[in-house]
Amino acid sequence: MKKVLFFLPVLLCNCHTLFAQFNEHPILNLENEDKKRINWGYFLGFNQYDFKFDYKEYDPAQNKTDVLVAKNIGFNVGLIGELRINDYFDLRLEPGLYYTQRDLGFPGFSDERDFLREVKSTYIHVPLLLKVSTKRLGNFKPYIVGGVSTSLNLSSSQDSAEDNETGTFRMKKTTYYYEIGFGIDFYLYYFKFSPSIRGVFALTDELIPDNDPNSPWTSNIDGMYSRGVFINFTFE
């Protein structure tokens, strides 16, 4: 009972501080954070990339032309440069390094050496985004974000003379995307923390067809487009 009586004032003090962040007059952290003309930060996060395939011929009854895609969890790391336009709009540049892997299964093969292609990618991803925020609500502020981006695939085999006949799945080095997402800025005592989720969709075809126009791997593919989900945790 003595221990309970000892910790009770401490508990009540902490609860008062917590609830003060959400009442009508919260204790504001980093009051001048959003008044800076230029802001810097960094992010860490996770990604999951997929492929969207367009086919020249498709028979849904037989379902023979579908390339199977097994998605994996990758990770992201990068920097943030933000230019303040006004209280509600910011322009952001977020260059980062993104690691991912997708496993492709091509139907019609019995040998795993022909059926399976592991597509490992290391992207330098550079988005230019417009961040649209609400009015600050105490110590948090929701926002949406959207824009365009480009990436350089450091793992690309674009210049390779080999193709799927020798087990090499070729992709283009450069891809262009559009992005859209949302997040929340949390104003902590020493820094601003922002979790966000974003969808990324390729605008350009990434596939390099095999040398043989009748290739069983690529002859029926009309286009291959990356798409993905990014979950980032930003520190500013």
Automatic annotation (TrEMBL):
Residues 19-206 form the Outer membrane protein beta-barrel domain. Keywords: Signal. Transmembrane segments: none annotated. Residues 1-20 form the signal peptide. This is Porin family protein. It comes from Galbibacter pacificus.
